[in-house]
Structure formats: structure tokens, C-alpha cells
Amino acid sequence: MAEHPAYPVGLRLSGRRVVVVGGGTVAQRRLPALIAAGADVLLVSPEATPSVEAMADAGEIAWQRRPYADGDLADAWYALIASSDPAANAAASAEAERGRVWCVRADDADQATAWTPATGHSEGVTVAVLTTEARGRDPRHTAAIRDAVVEGLRDGTLVAPHHRTRTPGVALVGGGPGDPDLITVRGRRLLAEADVVIADRLGPRDLLAELPPHVEVIDAAKIPYGRFMAQEAINNALIEHAKQGKSVVRLKGGDPYVFGRGMEELQALAEAGIACTVVPGISSSISVPGAACIPVTHRGVAHEFTVVSGHVAPDDERSLVDWPALARLTGTLVVLMGVDKIGRIAETLVAHGKSPDTPVALVQEGTTAAQRRVDATLATVAETVRAEDVKPPAVIVIGEVVTVGPAPAP
Ligand SMILES: C[S@@+](CC[C@H](N)C(=O)[O-])C[C@H]1O[C@@H](n2cnc3c(N)ncnc32)[C@H](O)[C@@H]1O
Description:
Elements: E1 17-23, H1 25-36, E2 40-48, H2 50-57, E3 62-64, E4 78-81, H3 86-99, E5 102-105, E6 118-122, E7 125-129, H4 139-155, E8 169-174, H5 185-193, E9 196-199, E10 216-219, H6 230-243, E11 247-252, H7 262-271, E12 276-279, H8 284-291, E13 305-309, H9 323-328, E14 332-336, H10 342-351, E15 359-364, E16 372-377, H11 381-388, E17 394-398
Parallel strand pairs: 1-2, 1-4, 2-3, 4-5, 8-11, 8-12, 9-10, 9-11, 13-14
Antiparallel strand pairs: 6-7, 14-17, 15-16, 15-17
The chain binds S-adenosylmethionine (SAM).
């Protein structure tokens, strides 16, 4: 049976009966894809792993708790035979052959009439890799080829241009805190496909060096803004490039909607009638503390964390932050853009009841090679920032979570 290569095909299983014999780890691995394909899955097995049982409890599959019996495949279009009972596997396989039901056998690829490819997905495309022959099958190699193709498509090292017309427009991409590995897969793909990238100072700057030479990279901080506000000048640059029919990526640090002015850009683009997609990013407010071994919550220590902007001092009339209320909270306070004003912030928190001994950590340039962490308390933080010359960008964490991890290296 295995002398000829397998014929690859995509089964459209939506609403069609698929019988799975055996509820062990093979079923656990394969069931999610069958469920995602909309198959009407019947599991026949006396036992199942807790994950498979959860799928049955959630109504994603039907489960008959009994051994395989002849006739189980009567209505099946496709069968996955993966029980731990060789006799049951052989009997189910024989029934599949008689009934002309395509059948995968986990225990004996030679006896199977179908093989499951190693699959991965990228951008609406399924990549499926099959070994040519049953003999000499090397599933790890097959999976490695799948990984290489999917990873390459995702990170742009394998370029497969779209031949349908690309919709010009803008993608507001959250680039994460700085480490180039911490951008999302979607963000990285859009970056690889961009004609123009308008980038902030913060975020994964290293990725810009990888872009092909034809991509125009514009530093948002250097856009001339004359009588305009800087933000208006950035909005105009986005609109103008998109109107020229280009694919524009606005690469932002962290998440576009966390002190990132993402909505202002989206609104300006909407007013200009330009399509815009927003790709979330990993915000520095959680990831930078994490990179310095500070969890923003910890069981029994903090049941809340609050992220605030410290770009204006607590007594500044433009401040929208209720600092006295924050001083009463028992959880974690994460302050972005607060290095310059940390002295006034600490004083205000203490004046409204927070202990001067409350631990504080400043994490500068988190997730990059230059990351450093400086520890203090509310009483000492202003002096520590001066003495240690802490500079933005830094995330400031205030609260007991600062001390739950291992002590920072001296
Ligand atoms: C304008 S806000 C943008 C926040 C961003 N949208 C986010 O979700 O992370 C800039 C502030 O974020 C913080 N920040 C961003 N990236 C950082 C990093 N790698 N290390 C430390 N702080 C960072 C700093 O407090 C900085 O002043």
C-alpha cells in the first residue's frame, strides 16, 4: 500500500461524522484540529485524558465511554484509530477498509489508508507536510520542515508575495517593549510586507535593520512638524503615504492603546477614509517588570495592579490621576513616564497614607541588552534616582511585589 506516495488533499469535514477510537494523548493532540474543522466527532473509548474529557464536557465532541464495537464507523467519513488495544485498532481498521472510510492509524502507519500531515498556519494558508512513504517516515523531520516554512513566513525570512491586490492602508502595530522577539507574529508579518514604516523611539528598533532596502523607514521623532503638533504631523505622514497606495506600518512601543495615542491615529485615518488595522502589543507595563523578575500580581500579596502615567506631577492641574485614592490601594502601582516626577509622586503617596518603606523598583530599558533594575523605597526613591542616574525609559513598580522574587544582582 505504501509503495506509491500519498496523495495530498484537504478534507472539508464540517458537519461530517469523524470517529475517533481511543481517548489518549494521540486523540488529545489531534482533536482540536478536527473540532476547528467543524467535524461532528464521536469518540469511542472507555477512558480519556482530562483534556479530552474537557472537550466532551464542553460539548465539542460526543463521547461514548466503551470499547470499540463493530459498526461504530457506519456513518463516518473519516476515522482516527488511536486506542491502546491492538486488537480493537485492527478491527476498527478492517471495518474502515470494508466501509471505504479513510482511516489514520496511530499504531501502524503501514496499515493506515490516510496519514496526518504536520500542519501549521500562516495568514489564511495551511502548510501541510507529508512524508512520501510510510517506510522510513521521520515525523520529527516532517515537523521541522513545517516549522521552518511557517516560521519563515511569519518572520518574513521566507517571502511569498500576495498576488491578489494588496489593500493599501495603515497597520498600527504594537511592537512590544524592545526585545525584537517580543513583537506578535502578526506584527512581524505586517512589518515584513510594509512599503513604509514609521517607527517610534521605543519598541523593537533592531527589527528595522532587517527590513529590505526598498522599505522606507521614517523616524517618527524626526518628522518635521512646523506649525503642526508632532502628533498631527505623524497623522499626516501616515495619511499621505497610504494615499499613495502604500502599505504603511506605524510601529509603536508596547501596545498602541497604552499611553500610545493609537486611537488618535486611528481616528485621523478614519476621517481621511483610510483603512486601518490595529495589532496589539506586549505592554511594557507588565512585561518590563516581568523581565526584571517582578510579577505585577502575586498570590497573597497583590490582588490588583494599576497602571498610571507619571508624565505630569500629582499637583499639576492637567493630571487626571487620583493619587490620594491610589495611596489607599493595597495592590501594585505601575508608573510609566514617571522618572522625572518620581520624587513628587512618592511624596504624594506618603502624604496620603502609603508607608514610606513601601518597596519601589525602577526598570530602565527593560528587555533590551541595556536593561537595569534599581531598587529603593518611597522614602529613598528620589535620591536613589539621582544617585544612580536612572533615565527614561523606565517602568516604576511600587508595592510589595517588588520583593517577592529573587533579590536583584548587586
Ligand atoms: C509613551 S509610553 C508608551 C507605553 C507603551 N505603549 C507600552 O504599552 O508599553 C512610554 C513609557 O513606557 C515605558 N517603557 C516603554 N518601553 C520601555 C522599556 N523597554 N523599558 C522601560 N520602560 C519602558 C516608559 O515608562 C516610557 O516612558
